[in-house]
Amino acid sequence: MLPVSPAAQLALTLGDPLGIGPEIILKALAEPKVQACGQITVVGNRQVLETTYQLLKERTPTPLADPAHLCIEECDTDFRLRPSHLGQGNPDSGAASFIYLKTAIEQTLQGKFQGIITAPIAKYLWQQAGHSFPGQTEVLAQLSHAEHYGMMFVARSPWSHWQLRVLLATTHIPLRQVPAILTPALLRAKLDLLVGSLHQLFGIADPRIAVAGLNPHAGEQGQLGQEEQQWLTQLLQTYPKARIWGPLPADTMWLSPAQAWYGAGSAAVADAYVALYHDQGLIPVKMLAFDRAVNLTIGLPFIRTSPDHGTAFDIAGQGVARADSLKQAILWAAELLNTPATMKKLP
């Protein structure tokens, strides 16, 4: 990781207070490397953190940050944590997690923070609380007025130090809706967004981008689907802003990244990979880098990262939740804030 300016101002949302968010936050913020990232403010509820801290002190040997020493932005919610309710997410916890996120976004847009790290929320509890958003990414985009945005997953291999970067062309939609929503205009906009982010955030001037096909075997010359022949191949072959490989069969596209991840083989790898729907990209990402992958939202006027897992209600409050992905999310946010182009862009 690049050296991080101690002046970095980062907001860390609490996530669903009945999930593992409070636990992994206390574990992550006890890590000296994380503490060195700059000023980290937890946006949420002090009572939730204090109750979690007292509960976990008896249940885990893992070091915990003492909430008394944390910077906490108290949100306007009357939610209070009862230990007996941990793991039993409900509309009240969903409503609280939405307020935490909204507060972090508003204060970041006002200039208080330079980036946001979001702990996990439960999308179905947002729905039950009356917030009809597919996920946190869409709220971030709407409140920051980002017309074009994307969900990218990044991870650094502990073996080879190679960086895996995967962009999802479509995100949280039913599989049957993908062919209708995945239009040439949408994919072109995602590629433009990806190229710009590779330039600005990662310093890659002439990126190589691998793009998966939509159908098995990338359509098998039209025998297994028509999208590749109808428009996808032509779009990728004529795209002017990067070197594009594809459309590639999705069942083999991930072999060279896997080899690069483990430092094996000499196959050429791309600077970024594009999956056309959620599971096409997230299955390989989580198989390779579940504890290290970070969700990076590109196209926002600020840095936003999050761990690549959910609320894990089934283990909440037991002291066994791993904070690795959240630590990586904080470290990545701080590192990306330190890239020269990002520092010029942010206020």
Helix and strand layout, with pairings?
Blueprint lengths: L8 E5 L7 H8 L3 H4 L3 E6 L1 H11 L14 E4 L16 H19 L5 E4 L4 H6 L7 H8 L6 E7 L6 E6 L9 H4 L2 H19 L5 E5 L14 H12 L4 E6 L1 H4 L1 H7 L10 E4 L2 H12 L4 E5 L4 E5 L16 H14 L2 H6 L2
Parallel strand pairs: 1-2, 1-4, 2-3, 4-11, 6-9, 7-8, 7-9
Antiparallel strand pairs: 5-6, 5-10, 10-11
- Write the CATH architecture name of the largest domain: 3-Layer(aba) Sandwich
Euclidean distance between termini CA atoms: 23 Å
**Regarding quaternary structure, how should these chains be classified?**
single chain
Strand content: 15-25%
**Protein structure class:** alpha/beta
Task: Compute the average pLDDT.
Answer: 93
| Sequence of strands across the biggest β-sheet | 3-2-1-4-11-10-5-6-9-7-8
CATH superfamily membership of the largest domain, which one? Answer: Isopropylmalate Dehydrogenase
Poorly predicted regions are 1-5
CATH-derived topology of the largest domain = Isopropylmalate Dehydrogenase
Number of helices: 14
N-to-C SSE string, H for helix and E for strand: EHHEHEHEHHEEHHEHEHHEHEEHH
Count of structural domains: 2
Over the alpha carbons, how many angstroms does the gyration radius reach?
Answer: 20 Å
Polypeptide structure, described:
Helix 4 packs parallel to helix 6. It contains 14 helices and 11 strands. It has an 11-stranded mixed β-sheet, with helices on both faces. The protein has 347 residues and is an alpha/beta fold. Strand 10 and strand 11 form a beta hairpin. It has 2 domains: 194 residues, Isopropylmalate Dehydrogenase (3-Layer(aba) Sandwich), CATH 3.40.718; 151 residues, Isopropylmalate Dehydrogenase (3-Layer(aba) Sandwich).
